[in-house]
Specification:
mainly alpha, 0% strand, globular
């Protein structure tokens, strides 16, 4: 899913010094860049799964040790990705997709 440039930005975002739950400007920039290049005809769930896989690979490549700090960092970047994904989907005219199970959103 991600290009080599996207993976480089993601690695930079992973190693950026950050404290707390806020994203650094470098992390936010990386997520915006990545989301700007996505195929918005894919479902948000598919995009999220692909991003998570790439994120874990990038964390491994950056030699970020497994543990609670890594889990928190990954969770923060995933949350930022979701925010950016839906912001850009909305700005580009791709709104929430209807349920794919054949039921309407209001059905019991």
């Amino acid at each position: 899913m991600l290009t080599t440039q996207d993976l480089d930005l993601l690695t930079t975002a992973l190693v950026a010094e950050s404290k707390g739950t806020s994203l650094t400007p470098a992390q936010r920039f990386a997520l915006r860049h990545i989301c700007a290049g996505l195929d918005y005809h894919a479902t948000p769930e598919h995009l999220l799964v692909e991003f998570k896989l790439d994120l874990v690979c990038a964390a491994d490549g950056a030699c970020i040790a497994h543990g609670s700090d890594r889990n928190e960092l990954i969770a923060k970047l995933v949350s930022g990705f979701i925010d950016e994904l839906y912001t850009q989907r909305s700005q580009n005219g791709f709104h929430a997709l209807p349920p794919t199970d054949g039921m309407s959103a209001g059905a019991p």
